[in-house]
Design goal:
The protein has about 200 residues and is α/β, with parallel strands linked by helices. The chain has a single domain, classed as Rossmann fold. The chain is about 30% helix and about 20% strand.
């Protein structure tokens, strides 16, 4: 991933959109409750072209993020391997450790839970990612840490990987402000179904 600095204009646009979309997401979550997570689980990830026993990286939701747990339970039952991201350090890509429902987790910074250090390291074939906003081109707005951009850049340099953003329909915007190093997702899965990005 390029180390070129983010322009002040783009930085300001991202900050404003983050603030707006947190409110949009909160209102959508209040409106839909848990039905969105169930709708996404009912879809599965067959649309991505990846089949078991491919490794799928999920995530454990923070705050009002869409909960991927029902989808992950379905994928485990279908024979996919599951893993979860682990933060090694600020500015570094995420590491992935194998995980299955029921495995112990440890709490790290910001209340994030991760697999134990003894869990095997794996390289996912499918990366599920949280987001605040997305557009039809596949650009996603995260929280500004750049973890998923660095991670996708690293994975795409060594293997074929499918990136799927998980979102509510209300999180779609006309255009997400982005820099040249921002990595796009291939699909966004919402309760309305999968959207193939960039087509």
């Amino acid at each position: 991933m390029s180390s070129a600095p983010l322009s002040e204009e783009t930085k300001s646009e991202k900050k404003a959109l983050r603030a707006a979309m947190k409110q949009v997401r909160a209102a959508a979550v209040a409106r839909h409750g848990t039905t969105s997570a169930e709708s996404i689980a009912a879809e599965g990830i067959g649309f991505s072209g990846c089949t078991p026993p491919a490794w799928v990286s999920g995530f454990l939701p923070i705050g009002e993020e869409l909960d991927p747990a029902p989808l992950m339970l379905r994928l485990a039952a279908e024979g996919y391997g599951l893993c979860l991201p682990v933060m090694e350090a600020k500015g570094k890509p995420l590491l992935f450790r194998a995980w299955k429902p029921g495995d112990l987790l440890e709490e790290v910074m910001w209340g994030i839970r991760e697999p134990l250090p003894t869990a095997p390291v794996v390289e996912p074939d499918v990366l599920l990612s949280p987001l605040l906003a997305f557009d039809a081109q596949g650009y996603r707005l995260g929280y500004g840490g750049g973890f998923y951009d660095r991670t996708l850049a690293r994975l795409r340099a060594i293997k074929s990987v499918v990136a799927i953003g998980l979102a509510l329909d209300e999180q779609k915007v006309d255009a997400v402000p982005h820099a040249d190093y921002d990595e796009r997702v291939d699909w966004v899965l919402t309760p309305s179904g999968p959207l193939r990005c960039g087509t």
